[in-house]
Design a protein that fits this description.
It is a single chain. The chain has 246 residues and is of the alpha/beta class. Strands 3-2-1-4-5-9-8 form a 7-stranded mixed sheet, sandwiched between helices. A two-stranded antiparallel ribbon has the order 6-7. Helix content is 37%, strand content 22%. The radius of gyration is 17 Å and the shape is globular.
Length: 246
Amino acid sequence: MDRLGGLRNFVRQELVSRQLAEQLAGRTAQRVLDIGCGQGTQALRLARAGHYVTGIDSDPVALGVAQGALAEEPPEVRGRMQLLSGDGHQCGRWFGPRSFDVVLCHGVLMYLPDPDPMIASLARLLAPGGLLSLLVRNRDALALRPAAAGDWRAALHAFESDRYYNRLGLAARADRLADLSVTLSEVSVPLRHWYGVRVFTDNAPDDAAPPVDGRQLAQLLEAEDRAGRTDPYRRIAALLHVIGAK
């Protein structure tokens, strides 16, 4: 739990992990590419589950944390995972078409001015039957966070624009599910399923920690998990986890 940091990241990683497991049920020894793998949370979990994972990140600090975590794993897990320094724009040069069964792109598209070229590039890397997993900021819920904080100017701005500043102070961009669905169809990886992530805990303070009581933590995750699968709750989640299938 320590590597997952505060409550908000903990909920994000735990829900995405559950959702990926659901989508990968029955698939064994998949070739996985994780673009923007960060500290390697999802990449490591997939390698432990028996998949062959390539994680890529351009942040040397995050990549160093991932490398340190990987070094602590048993030899069989280390043998199924490699970490590379770079970003999604380089994948077309490194890997040929149909090189992977699963491609993850989590928390990356929000920093690109236009997500479509990256999605098209990643779609080309997918083998037939492959899955593309995208985690994006939900534009249809973009006004909720500033409104909850009483920042009405930012809340009103969110109705008119897909641009915002995240909690790190970085300029970012949000996506609508409908727009992503169109893009996925255009690159022949149509929408298969989608989830909401962080319906109830997105407004938690940055320093909020997960509950130490195991029962309370399990209930929190179950509430978030159910909300992320249930309309209308999932439509106002802070993040959208979108799955396309080739």
